[in-house]
Amino acid sequence: MKKETASFRLPALKVLCPVMLLAGFFLFSCRDRKEEQSSYAEDRALIEDLQARYMFALDNDDLGTYVSTFTEDGILDIGEGEWQGRETIKQVLTSIPEEEAPAADSGLHNPTGRHNISNIALKIEGDTAWGRAYWFHMSNDNPQRKAQLNSYGHYEDVMVKVDGQWLFSKRKIYNEEIGKWAAPEGNPCW
Amino acid sequence: MKKETASFRLPALKVLCPVMLLAGFFLFSCRDRKEEQSSYAEDRALIEDLQARYMFALDNDDLGTYVSTFTEDGILDIGEGEWQGRETIKQVLTSIPEEEAPAADSGLHNPTGRHNISNIALKIEGDTAWGRAYWFHMSNDNPQRKAQLNSYGHYEDVMVKVDGQWLFSKRKIYNEEIGKWAAPEGNPCW
Amino acid sequence: MKKETASFRLPALKVLCPVMLLAGFFLFSCRDRKEEQSSYAEDRALIEDLQARYMFALDNDDLGTYVSTFTEDGILDIGEGEWQGRETIKQVLTSIPEEEAPAADSGLHNPTGRHNISNIALKIEGDTAWGRAYWFHMSNDNPQRKAQLNSYGHYEDVMVKVDGQWLFSKRKIYNEEIGKWAAPEGNPCW
To answer: Cα separation of B161 and B168, whole Å?
Structure first.
């Protein structure tokens, strides 16, 4: 009886050891795949989505959604120093006077403005991402409501993943229309 | 002999049980990774590709490819009501008169027009996706063949995955150049 | 003693066989997932990043980074024939005279130019990818530093994955501003 028990246990140990090793290998192998190979796409996809929702909120006066794309203590810097925190950003943006609406009797529909993002470069390490991207703005405040480019520049972003959601922890905006907001020379990307 | 057989079988069972448990865990773990973690990126990648191919087909008069980006009963709405089904969409678009080609003796190469998409926001649940995105159009029908913006607007899309392929089930186009096609106020995104 | 050894070894073999089969299945299953299901998103994400870094390098006179987006024997063709190899591309691009800088006494910040990419369509098979995409260029060399579109066209790319990094093995550029660089009729995409 004793011997039989031993013959049960020992093979179990001898076999479980390589099983465990194999198990560890597969677990590592899968995890490796996820973290090193699959996650860049997953994180990038979520960040691209964040970048798009930011633009929709910005151009459609949805300030609540706009500031929610930042972390609670996130920083926005358009070249006038750092505005930190959702409340501060909201207050500063609210205080910027909007362009005059067209005269009501123009007979035309309201003009609009649109910010677009392109050329998104992203470096991602764990829950932090560094981004560079171009932006350009168009509007149609003319009698033909033709789209017209106004300005462009680039973003230098830091983003963090909070509870599975990517948010801006810092967005620095360069604008090539205004001298003091224009980027210094040199490639800001890598 | 009998006892030996038993001592073969019992360890096998005792060892295979944890092996099976581990196996189940890894299988679940991998599957979980695929379905819950990787799929947003995968679906988004395929939808971005769809959006690009749609534009190439549209701008290059490839109407067959264009309508094949819709489901068989897909809906296109440019602000003139819903056109449903690939055949209907094809017929309506064919009936729209093209802009005049330049005089043959202008000595210039043919002008072209290009639709671009940007700021793609996507919500995806299973085989259905809801999209918001900006579009803008440029052309070069001038003596310098300089690119000129003409118009812009946004898309509100519903897409479905059919046999592994994402297709438009409904595309509603807003165009800020034309009053009756312009979007109502408010953020159309989330 | 001899018998006991046998009773250790045989179960080990009998159990390890299914373990190995299971192991193989999981390994294959995970790999399969990676290569067939997750890789389009992953490869596309890396290629989009490559496309963005290419633009930053191009517009910021970072020629070293620019040519490093090509394979060692990569080909660039802007419509003047094929320039092959990083060194050749560098030499040719260096020899193109830059546009005049504005007079130093203009009081304005330096004007800039920006290439943007959009509508990226990608077919990927293993370590090779075929791309089609739109590009458009804007600059602000005017007294208001307003963004102005200048030209647009499309890319026809072949990319290869070398040591885990996607690089251009061939980029053919079409430019709708210049007759001899304009694309022939027909949809260049699929």
So the answer is: 9
Count how many pairs of residues, chain A against chain B, have C-beta atoms within 8 Å: 137
Tokens linked to C21? 């089969």
* Res. C49: pLDDT tops 80: yes
The answer to whether the beta carbons of residues A66 and A58 sit under 8 Å apart is yes
Q: C69: closest CA among C47, C97, C37?
A: C47
Report the candidate in B185, B187, B171 with the shortest Cα–Cα distance to residue A109: B185
The highest-confidence range among A90-99, B14-23, B57-66, C15-24, by mean pLDDT, is B57-66
Looking at beta carbons, which residues of chain B come within 8 Å of A144? 177
Q: Are the beta carbons of B45 and A44 separated by less than 8 Å? A: no
Instruction: Give the per-residue pLDDT at A106.
Output: 75
pLDDT, position A38: 43
Residue A25, classed as helix, strand or coil, is helix
How near does any CA of chain C get to the CA of A150, in Å?
5
Q: Which of residues 13-72 of C touch A (CB under 8 A)?
A: 15-16, 19, 23, 26-27, 30, 33-34, 38, 41-42, 44-46, 48-49, 51-53, 55-57, 60-62, 65
Return all residues near C172 (Cβ < 8 A) that are at least 6 apart: C77, C155, C156, C157
User: Can you give the length of chain A in residues?
Assistant: 190
Q: Measured between beta carbons, which residues in chain C are less than 8 angstroms from residue A13?
A: none
Helices C39-59 and A39-59 pack at an angle, to 10 degrees, of 60
Give the pLDDT confidence of B67-104 residue by residue, as tens digits.
Answer: 999 999 999 999 999 999 999 999 999 998 776 655 55
What confidence tens digit (pLDDT) does each residue in C84-99 have? 999 999 999 999 877 6
3-state secondary structure of B37: helix
B15 or B31, higher pLDDT? B15
Contact criterion met (CB below 8 Å) for A67 and A89: yes
β-sheet bridge partners, residue A139: A113, A148
Residues 139-168 of B with CB under 8 A from A: 149-152
In this prediction the ipTM stands at: 0.81
CA distance B184 to B12: 69
Task: Find the mean pLDDT for residues C91-114.
Answer: 81
Q: Look at residue A119 and give its three-state secondary structure.
A: strand
Query: How is the beta sheet containing B165-175 ordered, strand by strand?
Result: B83-84, B70-77, B165-175, B148-162, B128-139, B113-125
